[in-house]
Amino acid sequence: MTYTKKAFLSLLCLVLVLMTATPAVTHAATTINDVPTNNGKYKAISWAVDNDLLSLNSANNFLPDEQITDRELVVMFAKLDKNFALTYNDSVAYNFYSDFYLPFNGTYTTANRSKAVTRGQFARIYAAFKGLDLDEPQAVQYLYTNDISTGSTGKKTFADFNPSTKLTRGDIAEFLYRSVQNGNFAVLGLKRAASGRDNDKITLPSGFMGSNNAEFEVPKDNSNDFTGPEYVNNALQSIDVEKPDLIANDQDSTLITVSLKACNGDPIPDDKSYTFRVTSSYGAKIVDTSGEAVRNVQSDGSTVSAIVIAPKLTKSVRDTITFELINNTDPGMKCLVGEKLNAHVRYLPQPEMRIDYQVYDPANKDDENGNVTPPYPKYEKLPEFFTQNIVNVHWIDPEEKLFSIGQQTNVTSTTGNVENKYLQYGGSDKNYPALGYENAILQFENYNISVWLFETIIQKRLKDSINDKIEIMYMISDDGRPIYRIQGIDDAIASQVENINPVGAIIQLMSYMPDEKHLTLEHYDSVMKIYAILTNLSNYDRTVLLKYQGGKLLGQVEAYKKRVEALKESADAASRPSGKDRYTKVMVTLVRPGGEIITDYQGTVKIKFDGVEKTASFVTNTSDYLNNTGSPGTAVAYFDSVIYGKSKAEATLVNKIDPRYATILKDLQDKTITKEIFTNPYFSKNSCSLATEVAYVVDYSSSMKASDQTNYRGKKMMEVINQIKAKNNVVIETNTKATVLGEGSTDNVLKKDLYKASKERGATDIFAGIDLALSKFSNDSKTSKSIIVVSDGKTSKSKMTKVLNDAKNKGVKIYTVSMGKKSQVNDAILMQLADETGGTYYHANDNLQLHQVFQKIIDSILCKTSSSSCGNPENLFEEATVTLRKGNITMNARIDGNCSNVAKVNVRFPSLSGDVQFELNKRSDSVYMLTKTVQTMQDFKVNNEIEFVAYDKDGKIIATKTVTITN
């Protein structure tokens, strides 16, 4: 009897196990009207309905061709997942699967949850669910090999799967039914964001991608890396990656540019702008030209671009950078909504010998002469579950840079339960430790303040509080950083300054500052933040401040600024080597693959600059006077010379590499590293003076990222303002709209930040900027009037006729300047603007040429002279190459198109019988070319230096450029 019971129980357990392991394949409880029983998908659809994955409508129709949304898919996975024990709520499911890095589109973007999923996206999600990080082709092949799909025709190719087609209710029923049949449906997931790291585990059959080449991992070009419906390919013109391979060091960067048309194939007007979300599948930083992290970027007409910073890594990784149109209201761009435009970059760890430099010259005190830049700002952790609203501060620790904050909020537990409670970071619950604030955005009212001011105000208010806590506002910035804003100007102050916020803020903040005699470098940032508020006051606000205490405070702010600047200058002087009045400081640092600096290297490096060689040891005590931290392991050499403009520094490790680092630094053995150096030149002393009014219109549309990633145009234009010293200045930033940044006397406008804070965004309308500038000129006929425009010329022309007529009627000369690659410039508009108003158009290939162009414009305005638009003759050759291919030697030269005095271009070769010159054939106004067979040049010393020579019509040499032959 006992044996019989045991056998029966064993049989019962076996039945139960089989019931849980095998899908219940039964007919639906009710008839499915629109799916006949002889339909190939009927069994799977019936199973999906019975298992409450999908439901019928009121007419008992299943609607198999309707699309599946991201939200529906995540809930289906949760209902089948043996490891999911929470409620079947989409938010809970997204939160659960985010820990497994399943690539659902709606995990972090709520708007994507209602969007349809493509079949290719499902393949990637399913592979990640099973523990494999695959790109779409490999994920589709994984479905084939596991009998989840057979393709649409049975060919089992990538195209046969229709990866860009939307996933339907019939599709998902069949895929999930087969998956459950194949075994246990339980999440394995990934350990980091999906980026195709497991692609090498899946072999693509020959012809899988439509040819006999099964290689997919590395894209062959960057022209158009998007596979999708034809209507999307009509809109997407190209995807260009400036540098596809980056050093994985948290510094190397690349610009990615996507070129578009409207969905019907029409060009997008230059004054149109759309917003795109840019994401990295590997979590790399997306930044603007100032280095600040961003989530969204704006297009400029037909192009949208983003800058990607490679992360620190110790292994090679392939990343996908995705551009996705968001917040679209234009029907003409509807085809791109929900579509992902992908570019690929690779991050490669490698050893580095970094060269940095600083220049000191008392005759030209330019703080930015050097390339030693601060690291990208760290992000403080956001308080999870907090809403953007009032929070309480309980305590603050200035030593540790931590504080305790709390808020009444909804907290979701690990089981998915939501509880409304008071959550305090830095309180009794150890699961919620105190938060950092040092790298958050700190504000008083809506003005940025220093860490010292933030701490001082919080401490004082806590001390005065009767309940040991105070209130501040918590928000999140566009780039995902926490904002902590202290609010409340004293009533006594506000009533005396007409409740004008910036004036009250200055007075309140100054009340926390020590006496002038007690100022130290610790207060430098605080004083400069207060001064920034002062410089942006309107004329009326400034008048109100002058009335407060008889203007005493205004003078006090100015005095505080001079004091801390003097302290900083003294500290700078103390850090300089004795006996050197001016110098170029070259610093060399060794970096292991992955971006970590080597701090204990035993050895020396040979550093060469301006023909002088010095040997320096890698030291461990380099310090920075401001915060007592520095760059341990840096070799430093000082050189007496300062070269303004372009120069270079070279570094070579001396002797054998330190044995401890022989393996990881082996690629640096006997290798010379060269660093291009640019020292900002200063303008020559004005040879003329003139009463003049000048407007400065600088293009900060998104397309200017490609022309000037360091904002040199803004920095240099401020120097031009100071050099001309016009009677009346009008400083304008233009993109989608024009904005006046400052106007009035030179001294007054230079007190403002002007272009220092300008960032590229939106579309281009330079005529809006010029039109605004024309409206700001006086009616004084005795003053000369000019406008200097810097732009790439990609702009709407709707206002061009009006602007030209107004400028000519008012006698205003317009000088136009473009910069960067000539192929990225619409010079026709810029030329017409200059030609029709008596100005001049210039193009600058680089920063040095921009300085030279501005020098010419300064001379033209102040001396009332005209000059050729040809830049410095030393830079006449924009390109000069000699290449050897297939038995032919091709000589090619591209000259500055503004230089009309070039009559011919020759190439001079050294030969056994003396120098020989060939005259190149003129192919266009700026291109010269000639091809010769190798046989005709057998006695030439083609491996030596080869010289390009430009002549004018009288046979005089205008410019030369020396190159070597390339293959």
Describe the protein in words.
The chain is 24% helix and 25% strand. It has 20 helices and 38 strands. A hairpin with a 2-residue loop joins strand 15 (441-444) and strand 16 (447-448). Helix 5 packs across helix 6 (136-145) and helix 11 (501-510) packs antiparallel against helix 12. The longest helix is centred in the middle third of the chain and has 24 residues, at 552-575. The chain is globular. Residues 1-29, 211-231 and 621-630 have low confidence and may be disordered.
What's the gist of this structure?
The chain has 967 residues and is α+β, with helices and mostly antiparallel strands. Helix content is 24%, strand content 25%. It is built from 20 helices and 38 strands.
Question: What portion of residues is helical?
Answer: 10-25%
Envelope shape:
globular
Total number of beta strands? 38
Estimate what percentage of residues fall within beta strands: 25-35%
Provide the residue-averaged pLDDT: 84
Compute the gyration radius: what is it?
33 Å
Q: Major β-sheet, in short?
A: 8 strands, mixed
Question: How many separate helices?
Answer: 20
Structural class: alpha+beta
Multimeric organization:
single chain
Write the layout of secondary structure elements.
Elements: H1 2-21, H2 42-50, H3 70-80, H4 90-98, H5 119-129, H6 136-145, H7 169-182, H8 230-235, E1 236-241, E2 245-247, E3 253-260, E4 275-280, E5 285-287, E6 296-298, E7 303-309, E8 317-326, E9 341-348, E10 352-360, E11 390-397, E12 402-412, E13 418-425, E14 435-436, E15 441-444, E16 447-448, H9 451-464, E17 470-476, E18 482-486, H10 491-496, H11 501-510, H12 524-535, H13 539-547, H14 552-575, E19 583-591, E20 604-609, E21 612-617, E22 634-639, E23 645-653, E24 672-679, E25 692-699, H15 712-724, E26 728-734, E27 738-744, H16 746-749, H17 766-775, E28 784-790, H18 800-809, E29 813-819, H19 827-837, E30 841-844, H20 847-863, E31 877-885, E32 888-895, E33 904-909, E34 916-919, E35 921-922, E36 927-933, E37 946-951, E38 957-963
Parallel strand pairs: 2-9, 15-18, 25-26, 25-28, 28-29, 29-30
Antiparallel strand pairs: 1-3, 3-7, 4-6, 4-8, 5-7, 8-9, 10-19, 11-12, 11-17, 12-13, 12-14, 15-16, 17-18, 19-22, 20-21, 20-23, 23-24, 26-27, 31-32, 32-36, 33-34, 33-37, 35-36, 37-38
